[in-house]
Design a protein that fits this description.
Blueprint lengths: L2 H35 L8 H27 L12 E4 H18 L3 E6 L5 E4 L1 H18 L4 E8 L8 E6 L19 H12 L6 E7 L2 E8 L3 E2 L5
Parallel strand pairs: 2-4
Antiparallel strand pairs: 1-3, 3-8, 4-5, 5-7, 6-7
Helix pairs in contact: 1-2, 2-3, 2-4, 2-5, 3-4, 4-5
Length: about 230
């Protein structure tokens, strides 16, 4: 066994421990945020509410990164855990946007939705899809604060190979920030987020690509051919 092959299991164990140790305190942060937001500890000043909303946004982003780190230790998508279930694609999209609303405001970034996804129920892993959307948007917001980001989200027919597609334009993402085959190869924070987003979608056949048009980058997140959920008579 080569030194590189021997180091791989140690790396995988390390990444698994790191991911778990990140998610445990994040769960507590998110839990207390929900209690504060619900007024369990009393009514909050609007400025305090804004502060804890930004705290929650940061926690959601870290949670998506932590889950991605766990996946990064697995080269085989079939080994990554998925939870395929019925979900409303427009709700997944709206929840991802809501999770980043305070982050965008804090960085003076305007997010404009040119096309909203249809209110269609499909079978997919909504948690993975939502995490990927959060990571893609956060990469663009953090990379280029103060810009206008435009989103076009659509859902093709069930028999189409395109499936769900989110197209983001306006972020000035560098050519070196494109998603890589493994997040572990990333050389920047932006590339790490985009690579983890793409890696997150691998078990459901999706991915993230980046193309450049002049000074702008076009980031496309795609999950192929989602199937409509079966309905009972």
């Amino acid at each position: 066994m080569t030194e590189q092959n021997a180091a791989a299991p140690q790396r995988d164990v390390f990444l698994g421990i790191l991911s778990h140790e990140m998610r445990t305190p994040l769960g507590a942060i998110i839990g207390y945020h929900e209690l504060l937001a619900e007024g369990i500890f009393g009514e909050l000043d609007p400025r305090v509410s804004d502060g804890i909303d930004r705290m929650r946004s940061a926690a959601d982003q870290l949670l998506a990164l932590a889950a991605g780190i766990s996946d990064a230790a697995l080269d085989d998508p079939s080994l990554m855990l998925t939870d395929i279930r019925q979900c409303s694609i427009d709700e997944v999209f709206e929840q991802a946007l809501a999770a980043l609303a305070s982050e965008a405001t804090g960085r003076s970034t305007q997010v404009i939705v040119d096309e909203q996804p249809q209110a269609v129920t499909i079978l997919t892993d909504p948690d993975r899809l939502q995490r990927a959307i959060i990571l893609v948007l956060h990469a663009a917001i953090k990379k280029t604060p103060g810009v206008v980001l435009r989103l076009r989200a659509s859902l093709s027919e069930a028999d189409s190979a395109d499936g769900f597609e989110l197209v983001l334009t306006g972020g000035r993402i560098d050519p070196d920030d494109v998603p890589l085959a493994s997040p572990l190869l990333s050389r920047s924070a932006c590339a790490l987020r985009l690579s983890i987003a793409s890696h997150t979608l691998r078990p459901v056949g999706g991915g993230v690509t980046v193309m450049h048009e002049g000074s702008d980058a076009v980031v496309t997140l795609r999950v192929p051919a989602p199937r409509p959920a079966e309905t009972s008579d």
